Amino acid sequence: MLLNLHVKNLALIEEADVEFGPGLNILTGETGAGKSILLGSMQLILGGKPQRDMIRQNSSSALVELLFEVDDESTEDELRRLGIQTEDGQVLLTRKITEGRSVCRINGETGTVSLMKAAAACLLDIHGQHEHQSLLHQSKQLEIIDAFGGAEISELKKQCSAAYKEFSEAGKILASFDMDEEQRKREMAFLEFEVNDIDAAALRPGEDEELEKKYRKLTNSRKISEAIYSVHEKTAGENMAADLAGSASAELSRLVSYDEDLSGLHDMLADIEALLEDFNREISAYMDSLWFDEEAFHETEERLNLINDMKSRYGRTIEDIASHREAQEKALLRLQNYEENKIKASEALAKAEKKLRSCCEALSEKRRKHAAVLTEKIIHSLTELNFLDVRFEICFNEKECSANGFDSVEYMIATNPGESVLPLSRIVSGGELSRIMLAIKAILAEGDRIGTLIFDEIDTGISGRTAQMVAHKMSEISARRQVICITHLPQIASMADRHFEIEKHGDEQTGTLTEIHMLDTEQSVKELARLLGGEEITPAVLQNAREMKELAENVKHKIL
After folding, report:
1. Cβ–Cβ contacts within 10 Å for residue 432, how many?
2. How many domains would you assign to the chain?
3. Considering the domain boundaries, does residue 38 fall inside one?
4. What's the gap between Cα 177 and its chain centre?
5. 239: which residues sit within 8 A by CB, 6+ positions away?
6. In a domain, 397, yes or no
7. Last residue of a domain, one of 325, 357, 373
8. What's CA 331's distance to the chain center, in Å?
9. Quick check: 1 and 75 in contact, CB under 8 A?
10. What φ, ψ does residue 433 adopt, rounded to 5°?
């Protein structure tokens, strides 16, 4: 459930803090007051692309925060799979927009837009005008059936996708045999050359790193030698550190007999003298090991050049080169036994095609089974939304097998008696389309675990009794899920468990501001009266609004 929305410096909103509650949260306001800005802020959390004009004038950045409460175990599991842990059962999603970039944070930790989008998709679903227009597309219609089928269809789709990948690979292998004898000989010669070339190099894993280390030492041996000799001269040379330390130690040794307090200093200097002697022995041994072998240097250099040449042609690492050789050898073996392997490849493709076909058929069978149930549910739900004599069908057609099966579907509907069923795109109006999508959303909400549904433009093209029935449906959904709805219809607004008003005000000096505040019962009645009566609110309109609110409360009690 969405607990809190915090928006700062976004378009007309200077700062807004909205505390949502369970049930039906309604937002109303005059046209142009900023309802779309509020929805746009939520779309940003869902991965929407920020526009440059989103940042409020004279501000350097805009901020959107959504705080969710997660009390569903399956949702927590989904979030954990994304690497997100709830904190005290809550998740905070934040997106900050600045000029040219945005920063996403989940529970205070920086994340990617794609991770933010995935997390938000587990928590809320926004239904706007664009989405119910997408219902006209057959791909969306198939997605709805798959969503309704849930895990059963999801598992079959995975199997279908794996079978299609196997089929595609088998097709590529068979296509590699599509050549004449001359082409086959050229290809074999090329493959043999690469295999032999790699074999001749006799590369060892890790060899390049060993050689580079050796090469660095050899190329810098002169610098090392000069520096080491200089250090040795300063510590072991005549009248240098070791000599001077020994001389000083002898002098202190004589003085100790006069003053025992100097024994500590003498011991320290004796230790320094001993350390210098040890150091000089070690550095002498290292100097004895120093050499510059011209032949070894050239051998190392030539070997590194060979390895780098092989990398430029066959792979970035020695392991990549070995993998390339293995692949080329397999291809060579296929061509050496051309006819036999071509037959095998053809048989493998036929087997993969049969398996893919079987997966597609199993997927289609399940889709048809779930589509039949979905059809009955949609008809029932549409009847509740004032489609009095509706017929609805889902027609299946078969296309080529793919990773998503071979089904192509089309939703067909007739909304009046005596009419033939026709595709949605040819018959429904905007208001009818929004109601159909609402019916589908209500059905899908029964099976999914998304805690918050957001509706915008759900009341497009409807009024009167139809609006009342849509309001009832919204209230039904909100009994199972948190619903946030932006509306201009009093019938829907009257069902609110929490009612928010979006207001725009300001002048030339302060600028235009959009503010959001929650209404108490009496304020909600006045807002309903505004929606009913427009600019002039008469006592009769106010009484009508009060009665509408009371009737809505009675309906909600019956639903509960």
Report:
1. 23
2. 2
3. yes
4. 40
5. none
6. no
7. 325
8. 38
9. no
10. -65, -40
Distance CA 516, CA 28 (A): 10
* Closest of 97, 35, 25, 131 to residue 519, by C-alpha: 25
Q: How many CA atoms lie within 13 A of 277 on its CB side?
A: 8
- 417 closest CA partner among 391, 379, 386, 382: 391
Q: CA 45, CA 116: separation in Å to the nearest integer?
A: 7
Strands laid side by side in the 391-402 sheet: 391-402, 405-414, 422-423
Residue 104 sits in the same domain as residue 211: no
Task: Mark which of 305, 325, 345 sits at the end of a domain.
Answer: 325
Predicted confidence (pLDDT) per residue in 438-447, tens digit: 888 888 877 7
State which residues form the domain around 21. 2-128+450-559
Note the pTM of the prediction, 2 decimals.
0.66
Q: Could you identify the residue written with the tokens 């909400």?
A: 445
Residue 157, domain member (yes or no)? no
Domain contains 464: yes
Q: What is the CA radius of gyration of the chain?
A: 39
In which band, very low, low, confident or very high, does the pLDDT at 37 lie, cut at 50, 70 and 90?
A: confident
User: How far apart are alpha carbons 303 and 7 in whole angstroms?
Assistant: 62
Q: What is the pLDDT of residues 389-417, one digit of tens each?
A: 889 999 999 999 999 999 999 999 998 88
* Integer Cα distance of 335 and 340 in angstroms: 9
